Amino acid sequence: MPDAPAPTETATGLAALEARLRDDLLLLNLPARPWVPQREPDLLDVLIVGGGLNGLTAAAAARLIGLRVLVLDRAPEGAEGPWITSARMRTLRTPKDLAGPALGLPALTCRAWFEAQHGRAAWEAMERIPRAMWMDYMVWYRRVLDLPVRNGVEVTLVRPQGAAPVLVETASHGTFRARRVILANGIDGLGGPVVPAAVTGLDRRFWAHSSDVIDMGALRGKRVGVVGAGASAMDNAASALEAGAARVDLLIRRAEMPRTDKFTGSASKGMTLGFLDLPPEDKWRFFRIANAVQLPAPRQSVLRVSRHAKARFHFASPILRAEADRGALRVVTPRGALRLDFLILATGFAIAPETRPELAAIAPHIRSWADSYTAPPGEEDAGLAASPDLGPGFEFRERVPGACPGLERIHCFSFPAVLTHGKMTSGVPAVSDGARRMTEAIARSLFVEDRVQFLAAFEAYGRPELLGDEWRPWEGPMEDESDAAA
Ligand SMILES: Cc1cc2nc3c(=O)[nH]c(=O)nc-3n(C[C@H](O)[C@H](O)[C@H](O)COP(=O)(O)OP(=O)(O)OC[C@H]3O[C@@H](n4cnc5c(N)ncnc54)[C@H](O)[C@@H]3O)c2cc1C
Fold first, then answer.
1. Does residue 215 carry a pLDDT above 60?
2. Cα–Cα distance measured from residue 194 to residue 315, given in angstroms and rounded to the nearest whole number
3. Which of 144, 160, 254, 322 is least surrounded, with the fewest CB atoms within 10 Å of its CB?
4. Whole-angstrom distance, CA of residue 420 vs CA of residue 15
């Protein structure tokens, strides 16, 4: 292969990029024209709960294959997902070169968007994508594809009704009806934050979860504890230190810092596309191994903390007890006690659909891995066992067949899908593959569901391709003259 050309200044502007994207779509004859028979004007083919990364990518993928889609998000426009609210890392944790939600369209990548504005040299000089810039890119992605998103709409109940459309009730905009519903409602979408038992009874003025919006300025001069050793623990510890915290104590349950990111390190297209078809025992084993070493924080995130002299890393220090004591917190660990003013729990999220009011109608019926798989002795894992046991199109399945007809019309496109599908819903890397897999499965199921109509329309179709003037019947003898001579 010849050497790549030297980078040239390529900041041609967003208008030029948008024209290129329109042209690319034209060349690919996309989006496909809508093809699902529209039975009633307000009936949607697909309704997506959540307009974050997963929801927007799913909406785009659905649009490209001709499905009519609507996205609802309770967040204000431009503040969907964690990026400019609860996330506190400086840059994305993922490498900048991943194509993310681009769905195979080069002009839709974050890189194309960035280079159009700042040029190739600037892209090459940038180590990772700044967090708020990623939000700006998401805003552009939605605008340039003209994705139909309604903000400020909170979904309060998702109700399947057998073969009839799924009802999606909202707090302020009435009830929507859709033939398929996609839950792209976030990393906590099937549950909520994990709060250690020692902390649950404490007054909320003493603690927050990393997914909360925290006023870091209020931690100036305070003694802050951060529970956890993952990326969010580092981001929160660093933010508190940068805001002027008097001291930050990291309380880490493990005896050692997690160091190896197994999934990222061994990622491949084969893993992305093939994981779904692995036998359950292999899927379980992959995640057990990954959980055993735990996902480490990126190196830069740890350095962002450790460069502060006021940061202290305590290993083998799970919280045994925490109590309010003379206006502060007294936190007891196996290695001693600490006095703190505020505690941030970077303890992750649990899968517990029964705790989400909007899932009340379906939660008892969702088949989980606990229902369908028994781990070998010593390999049990309650967190994994709570994962939904999804179908090949990310659809929920019933725990007891027939107990919740229509449940399979609701698709889970959030983090908990990973045990069934591999890491397609956990962030930027494979979100396009996941969105395509899911929306193509939805398209197949809608086509099959409407098969009577499609067959009738096929039979009735009579617009002639040929007008009758393209040929003339041969009016001479059948035999060739040369045959006759012979
Ligand atoms: C702090 C943090 C940092 C991360 N950093 C990275 C990273 O660097 N790289 C990476 O690849 N991944 C990262 N991830 C993971 C990544 O954010 C998620 O995988 C990705 O955002 C998933 O997108 P999502 O659409 O499922 O969820 P989100 O982006 O969280 O979007 C969910 C949306 O659903 C809406 N919603 C939820 N419930 C309702 C309801 N009832 N009604 C209406 N709307 C609702 C919310 O308002 C929200 O906008 C990070 C996650 C977190 C939490």
1. yes
2. 20
3. 254
4. 41
